[in-house]
Each structure stands twice: as C-alpha cells, then as structure tokens.
Design a protein that fits this description.
235 residues, alpha/beta, Ribulose 1,5 Bisphosphate Carboxylase/Oxygenase, Rossmann fold, 3-stranded parallel sheet, 9 strands, Ribosomal_uL1
Length: 235
C-alpha cells in the first residue's frame, strides 16, 4: 500500500504548475518549496531513450561540477610504493595497499565516499567487486578512478567530481549541490551535468534521447524540465 504524502510535501507540490519548466525557473522553485530543516541535496533525474541492456547503449561518465557538491568526499586510494605517499600528499583520507583491501573484505569497512586505485592494484581490487560494485564505488578506468595520476584523481573527487550511469530502467540520477547554494551556482552545476549526459549520447541511440527530466531536493517533489532544447541539440 502506497504511503500517503505528508502535508508539507503536498503543500510544496501544490506550488508546482503542471507544465515543463526551464532549468532557470526550476532551480529557484526547488529552493523556494523546500520544507525540511536540513540542507537537502538537489538532484537531477533524466530518463533517456536508450536500452541499457545493450552494452553499446550504456550511458556513463564523470563530470567535475564547477561549484562542488557542498561536502568534501572521504577518499580511499589503493596503491603501492610512492603512489601511497602521493595519495597522502594529495589529501586522501585513507591510503594503502592490500591491507585495506583485506579490511574491506573481512570487516565490511566502508568509511569512505570514493575509491581510487592504481592499475597494478586492480587484481587485488577484483575481490571487492561484489562489495563495492552495488554501491557504485568500484574503480573504473572510464571514470578516471583507475589511474597512475593519483594527485589529479584525488583533486577531482574533492572538487566535486560526479559519476553518472544510466540504471536498468534507462534513468540517470545525479546530485548537483545543496538547496542552500546560491541559485546561480546550482544552475551552473545542473547545466554542467546535463550537458555532460547529452555529450555521452551513444552513437547507436535513435529517436528522442532525453525523454524526460526533473529536478528536485532530497525530500521535495520533482519539477519537470522542458527537454525540448536538449533534444534539439542532438539534431
């Protein structure tokens, strides 16, 4: 049985007109109708015209948001030799080699928000696929989290690097900042994320690429975006 929306949620939803909004109008509206006491995350959700069951239609990538996410991620670097010292100098919270892989595997230790690994450690990292994979934390060369340039990777994560990946229903969910951000900073972040998703369109995808999109806060109702302009850019 579906749970009935609360009064505050219903009141917030009542302030949204039943029409698609431009991003420039949607962001301030999301900030206006926010009703919880904590500084909620603002999220963008995009339903794409792809079939993720086919590898050549998988949409994924990373983007560094120009204004960050409003919180510093705790970074774990799995490396060896000088790369461990490089990780420490770059500001990673946790750094080490096989001993940390074993700690995750045996103790289910998960006190981190992002994982970076050097290529030589990926054989050891393979043991963590079932633990890190479902959480979206498994390092991957395509997202820049398997690399020899540890300093760059740590700096990007700290600066607000966001990974996006289409789920099995063809939807991308991604954070773009906090409700308490200045409107122009949220707008710039959201626009940067959307453009990155558009650029990641698979060449084999046909028809309308962005079927629908919404922006919302963690607890708030979604505001539908006018996706016409995004699909025109694909022509």
């Amino acid at each position: 049985m579906a749970r009935k929306p609360g009064k505050k949620y219903t009141a917030a939803a009542g302030q949204i007109e039943k029409r698609p909004y431009t991003l420039e109008d949607a962001i301030p509206l999301v900030q206006k109708i926010k009703f919880s006491k904590f500084d909620e995350t603002v999220e963008v959700h995009m339903r794409l015209g792809v079939d993720p069951k086919h590898a050549d239609q998988m949409v994924r990538g990373t983007v560094v948001l120009p204004n960050g996410l409003g919180k510093s991620k705790r970074v774990l670097v799995i490396a060896s030799g000088d790369k461990i010292r490089e990780a420490e100098a770059a500001g990673a919270e946790f750094f080490g080699g096989d001993e940390l892989v074993e700690k995750i595997q045996k103790e289910n230790w998960m006190d981190f928000d992002a994982v970076i690994a050097t290529p030589d450690m990926m054989r050891s990292m393979a043991r963590l696929g079932k633990i890190l994979g479902p959480r979206g934390l498994m390092p991957n060369p395509k997202t820049g989290t398997v690399t020899t340039d540890v300093t760059k990777a740590v700096n990007e994560v700290k600066a607000g690097k966001v990974e996006f990946r289409v789920d099995k229903t063809g939807v991308i969910h991604a954070p773009v900042g906090k409700v308490g951000f200045a409107t122009d900073k949220l707008l710039e972040n959201a626009s940067t994320l959307i453009q990155a998703v558009i650029k990641a369109k698979p060449s084999v995808a046909k028809g309308k690429y962005v079927k629908s999109a919404t922006v919302c806060s963690t607890m708030g109702p979604g505001v539908a975006l006018d996706v016409t302009v995004y699909n025109l850019r694909q022509l």
